[in-house]
């Protein structure tokens, strides 16, 4: 590319030589020699980017004979971050999590029950935003809710009892509900 730019400079300035063109248009900037740049003194000169400064973007091949029309919403949502048949919130979370449940570290499969969970529960002061949301399997969500001290009212599967931080003496657990006892 440098030789082509020098040829351009010679063509533009027909009465000047190669050395004059090189001194006029090429500079050393930050230890990088032969940079095609403007001659503005005191400020950052405008420069022509080199091919090596372009980042290489790697792409992941599509699995086997997968197609966006084959019905595997989890795969395509985690790959693209959107799918017409998947809610955008869930698709974005799938892409951010790379198709994995952060609680059990297993991949989501088509047909799994997915639930949106607050990383820091709202009852403890967590915000209702993408930064605080994560996707979990339904059973992982129940286990996490039981252990983090939140109220856990979203899931219809009540396999684990929530453990509040402090239970007063006149309260007991009865059939997955916290009830008072009068003594």
The CATH architecture of the largest domain can be named as Orthogonal Bundle
Q: Give the termini distance in whole angstroms.
A: 90 Å
Q: What is the total number of structural domains? A: 2
CATH class of the largest domain: Mainly Alpha
Helix-strand string: HHEEHHEEHEE
Task: Provide structural commentary.
With 183 residues, the protein is of the alpha+beta class. The protein has 2 domains: 2-53, no CATH class; 73-180, DNA Binding (I), subunit A, CATH 1.10.30. Helix content is 26%, strand content 15%. It contains 5 helices and 6 strands. The protein has helices spanning 2-12, 18-25, 73-80, 88-96, 138-148; strands spanning 26-29, 32-36, 114-118, 133-137, 171-174, 177-180. A two-stranded antiparallel ribbon has the order 1-2. The chain is elongated and about 105 Å long. The N and C termini lie far apart (90 Å).
């Amino acid at each position: 590319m440098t030789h082509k730019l020098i040829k351009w400079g010679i063509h533009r300035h027909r009465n000047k030589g190669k050395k004059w063109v090189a001194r006029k248009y090429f500079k050393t900037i930050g230890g990088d020699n032969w940079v095609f740049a403007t001659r503005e003194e005191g400020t950052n000169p405008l420069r022509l980017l080199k091919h090596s400064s372009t980042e290489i973007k790697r792409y992941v091949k599509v699995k086997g004979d997968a197609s966006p029309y084959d019905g595997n919403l989890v795969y395509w949502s985690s790959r693209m971050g959107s799918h017409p048949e998947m809610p955008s919130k869930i698709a974005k979370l799938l892409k951010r999590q790379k198709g994995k449940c952060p609680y059990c570290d297993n991949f989501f499969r088509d047909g799994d029950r997915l639930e949106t969970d607050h990383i820091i529960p709202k009852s403890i002061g967590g915000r209702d935003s993408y930064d605080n949301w994560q996707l979990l399997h339904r059973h992982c969500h129940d286990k996490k809710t039981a252990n983090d001290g939140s109220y856990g009212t979203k899931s219809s599967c009540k396999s684990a009892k929530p453990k509040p931080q402090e239970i007063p003496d006149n309260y007991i657990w009865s059939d997955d509900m916290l009830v008072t006892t009068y003594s």
